[in-house]
Amino acid sequence: MQLLFVHGLGSTRFDFLLNARRLRRHGHHCSAFAYWAAFESLASIRQRLIARLTAMAQQGDYAVIGHSLGGVLLRDALLQLPAGVRPPCHLFLLGSPMLATQANQFLNRSRIYRYLAGPCGQLVVSASAMAAIGLPALPTTCIAGTRGLTGRYSPFGTQANDSIVRTAELSLERFEDVVTLPLRHPMLPASAAVGAAIASRLRQ
To answer: What is an example of a GO molecular function annotated in this UniProt entry (predicted)?
Structure first.
């Protein structure tokens, strides 16, 4: 099976390297899609991602994996695939929000964040922009981390989170297949437990 990983905001394609090695042992061919948040427009990223997905579809069955913002970009591109292009057999969303994120809205107060995050950063702080990106009609697994700090000293208060994204922002109720793991947001792409969850669903 062809697998394509799309990284999150402020991270890189190499975040998935360990799981790519694990999944290759199961016979899967892993690749990654990279983008430059500070310098690329959302339209440019979407166009390149659609072209990549189209090329994969021409080569046979494939599945896609998006971490955080990467999952948002994948949902956006998948909903705009040209007619006749085969969709992936499975979409995996790792800590990928369906709603505008509180953490990014806070960071957006900083001029440095706005510069480094570029248009991608503005996407995840906009409630209307995030609401406009739907969920493709294909088998989807939402993997949520739950190891974020809660309580008196947490910026999230009593709300469950993975240290960056609140669980409520994942909209778990929209998914038939949800996996919760005691992991923090940055660790999701490299986690062996995440790799195992992906491999088990691809076997099905």
So the answer is: hydrolase activity
Q: What is the DSSP-derived secondary structure letter of residue 168?
A: G
Domain count, the chain: 1
The per-residue pLDDT for 204 is 84
Mean pLDDT of the chain: 96
Q: What is the pLDDT of residues 182-196, one digit of tens each?
A: 999 999 999 999 999
Q: What is the pTM of this model?
A: 0.97
- Give CA 161 to chain center in angstroms: 16
Residue 203 forms part of a structural domain: no
Q: What angle do CA 18, 123, 9 make, to 5 degrees?
A: 20
119 pLDDT higher than 90: yes
Domain carrying residue 20? 2-197
Measured CA angle at 133 (ends 160, 200), to 5 deg: 60
- pLDDT greater than 90 at residue 153: no
Does residue 202 lie in a domain region? no
Structure-token match 């981390």, residue found: 145
Gap between the terminal Cα atoms of the chain: 12
CATH number of residue 45's parent domain: 3.40.50.1820
Q: Classify residue 204: in a domain, yes or no.
A: no
8 Å CB contact between 187 and 143? no
For 144, the enclosing helix (H) or strand (E) is strand 140-145
